[in-house]
Amino acid sequence: MAALSRKNLIRLIVNAALILVAGLAACGKPAEPPPPWKVVDAPTLRAMMADDRDLPVYNTMSEIECLDHRIPGTKCLACEEIEKDVAVLPADKNRVIVFYCESAGCYRSCRAAGAAVKAGYTQVHVLDGGMPAWKQAGYSMETVERIPRGSIPSVRAPALKQMIAEQKDLLLVDLRSEQSYKEGHIEGAANHPLYRLSRDYAAIPLDRTLVLIDDRGFRTFLAGSYLEMKGYRVMRLFGGMQAWQEMQAAK
Amino acid sequence: MKDSARKRRCGPPAGWILLAVLAALCLPAAPAAQDCRFCHDEPLYRFDFNRSIHAGNGCTSCHTGITNIENHRDGKEKPAPVNCGSCHEKIAKEYLNNFHYIQEDFRCSDCHRNIHAIRKDPDKNVKLAIINKCTECHGNADYTASGHGEAILKGNHDAADCADCHGLHSTQVFHTSLEQYPAEAREFYTQKCKRCHADSVMMARNNLSDRMVAYYEGTYHGKVQELGYPAPVAGCGDCHTKHNILPKEDPRSSIHPDNLEANCGRCHSGFHPRFLSYQSHPDYTDRQKYPALYATFLFMGALLVGTLAFFWFHTILWWRKVYWEHHRMEKEGIVPPSVVATGEGLQQVERFSVKYRVMHVLLVLSFFTLVLTGFPLKYAGTEWAQTLTRLWGGAHMSGLFHRGAAFVLIVGMIYVTWESLTFLFPKGEGGKGWLKRLLGPDSLFPNLKDLQDLKGMFLWFFNRGEAPKFDRWTYWEKFDFLAVFWGMFAIGGSGILLWKPEWSSWLVPGWVLNIAALVHSEEALLAALFIFTIHFFNTHFIPNKFPMDRLIFTGTYRLEELKEQRPLEYERLVAEGRLESLKREHPGIPLKLISATFGLGSLLLGLMLTVLILWSLLFA
Question: What is this model's ipTM?
Fold first, then answer.
């Protein structure tokens, strides 16, 4: 302690103050590394598409959803397909590519972008705020095969639980990816991932009322309308697996 | 069969088409409509459409983009998507943010399915129609069983339908999985409830009280919400639930006595069942329903008005007397001896030791922190309150500072109590002579002389006698001191109860918390106004001390000032031979500068807060 000169003491105090300030700054906002792709807003994407007519812009939702409504001139490519095999993307890894998703809280575009970056693509972009941002900017949409909106009743988690207990003649259809299904699902639910439902729906039996289950309840309405169009009787789980898990956790 | 019929009819001679094109060029709307219906000849278009609200529009008003009718007939040209927004602009704009559009890409015709036959029907029960439409998908058993739903089914046109709360074309969704939930949702829906439930005409029509909203806004829940922080407090829907809104007499209601424990328990935990007697919408002025609250309200009101009225009166008279006296002396060229003191008179004498000066600074800091964090809650609806709370870093941080400052004050109070006890019962003397010390000149406890001084001051105010001669403590200083003590019991006691209301319920029933909230708030108002007007004037703004007396910060004043302001104390000090030990050096420049900055800053801040408080009290 006696060896601590005045100069050292000042240095110590200054360092302590710097550490404190840095610490406080770190408390204010947890440091998050920036994503390895570029985020663009709707007007920017529109300008990019106007400049480059062949710009590959991918709707990362399921084919059903994408053909129903998408940003004009964009391609349908579900993020699960990209994750499986990036060969579906352009061969030129320095080509600008853009991904977008159904909602601001949806991570499919980011997962697709992550897969592209990992595969060596250097110019990966993601639409900030997804399709809602595009719509809210007042830009038009494009429809290839519109699904007539049905009247799909929703059932809340506790009511569904009771219906299962009463052994109603239901078929639970889990629309989430194979991976999510593996990680946990409602007992007795069959997995028919939404991203390939347009190819696989015929495997679902027609003799029972379906209860559609997704992550958060956002995607079952359109899937339900699609299946209703195909002749199924359909209900959907309000709030999706999240609502179900919250109910289970509350018990 | 239908197709062949259409072909037969639609395979017309070229002249017809020429006629149609010519007609389309001259009179675009109506003839075009007729042409469309030549092929599209279903009764819906030929009959129902003519009686519909859109009958005045031709087909091509909505179905645009056909340039060549032959190409269209051959399936080569399709009309552009219908854009209802070209006429219904306002709705289209609202609809851009509609959840059904954003998330599910609903278009107008997905809800307005019979658009070609839609008619204006003045007798239509719009509310019922809305419920029917929404429940096609949202089969909400809760809502249809609720008070609102039941009332609409019975024909009530005031009760809320789906759109009244969720919006019709501007439907928002605050999904539980999104970050904005629950703060934005709570704020949004609580405003929706308030819009009708504060409407006095509508509530009177339905035998409901329009005051419920105001009573809620007077509680902690309502105030934090109004301040702009709905996340941590209960909004309407948290207690009354979202759809199952029923009167408390109904056993299915969330606010039925049997369900209250579970209801409150969704946010609060660890409470005694008597916690449930807390009133979420109390009316202080309702003597029948809340007698204890009413009595507290009266008592606190009387205390506030009485104390302020007496001391403001006292202050005005005092100021008048001193100002007139100053004027007289100025005119006659008389200068008070303390101002022109020389020699011995310049000697600095200690009035407050370092310990008491530090304690006063701590008191000032904690008091300001409490006022600056507490009053924004009291006047939550004002702009300044919301700005101030943002500066603190939000309601939660503000609350932490409030509790921190309260802790400092409570520790100070305990210390002063200890000091008072050792003053009364010094070591070695035991219980002997405590009464003499309690009523003696060095005590801050009021005695008979204070009563005489008070009378003397009033006589002096009215030019009926000399100003009384004071000893160490004047009666107003004693009042200041004891007011902090009383205030600490009222504010501190109620504050501790409100600190953790769930734990308090093991000590007192919930309705006592209503009383505690009232006492805490009213006593705070009294304390703030008393300090910022009366204490500030008595000690600092009185003309011979204006703008401030730095004595409490520097601790010393001139001997001449001691003689002038505390003549009896001076005589005592001389008689007891203690004066010598109180002589001090003149305070240095740094101490004087710091004292002036801190003191004047505090005074200015206090005055500014007084303006804000009085403005809020009178106009907000």
Answer: 0.80
